[in-house]
Amino acid sequence: MPYLGLLFNAFVWGLSWWPLRRLQEMGLHPIWATLLFFVLGAALVGASRRRAWSAVLRTPTLWLLALATGLTNAAFNWGVATGEVVRVVLLFYLMPLWAVGLAWWLLGERITPLAAVRVLLALGGALLVLRPEDGGWPVFSGLADWLGLAGGVGFALTNVMLRRAAAHSSAERALAMFAGGVCLPALAGLALWAQGIIPGWPAFQWDWLMLAGAMGVAFLAANLAMQYGASQIPVHITSVVMLTEIVFAAGSAVWFGGETLRTPVLMGGALILVAALMATRDEA
Question: Which of 95, 211, 222, 235 could lock onto 156 through a cystine, CB 3.0 to 4.6 A?
Answer without folding.
Answer: 95
